[in-house]
User: Fold this.
Amino acid sequence: MAGMRTTKAAPARREQILREAARLFAERGFHGVGVDEIGAAVGISGPGIYRHFAGKDAMLAELLVGISERLNEGGRSRIEEAQAEGGAEDAALDSLIHGHIEFALDDRALITLHDRELDRLRPADRKRVRRLQRQYVELWVEVVRGRYPGLGGPDARVAVHAVFGLLNSTPHLSGSSALPDRGTTAALLHRLARGALAAAAA
Assistant:
């Protein structure tokens, strides 16, 4: 039983470390945060971090590669589910938008981290992130062009990137005292995304 508890606790501890590392990196910058500070944030000593990660570089890579994989895999699953249920292109598009909005609202630190620290990744990890991102864009492009057949490939890609920029603006909204509740914000972002794509196809 003790071994089972240890096995279950290790992934949870890694996730906790990654969550706090993302928050601290986003707040202070990658070079502004030490391993000791990350350890203190999760209640362990700085050296204890090395039982889970080789160092800060490894944390950053896992954060940025991990979210790129999650978005890509989640997008594929959403499209497959919509198709399995016999949904129209509208349903697949709405599902993609909904999934990205969840990311934009729940993982704002990772958006900031990507914008500021992507170039700090090792070339191989950075290349992997870029490849996954291209695949994710193409998932969207295929669905968008299915919904708006008159929209050409280049224009569809520009529109998809513009929608990502719109949805990924959430870190800039967090300090606003006028920010609506989560449900209202999600609904507004969804309308804006659909409106932008419709305008691109008009």
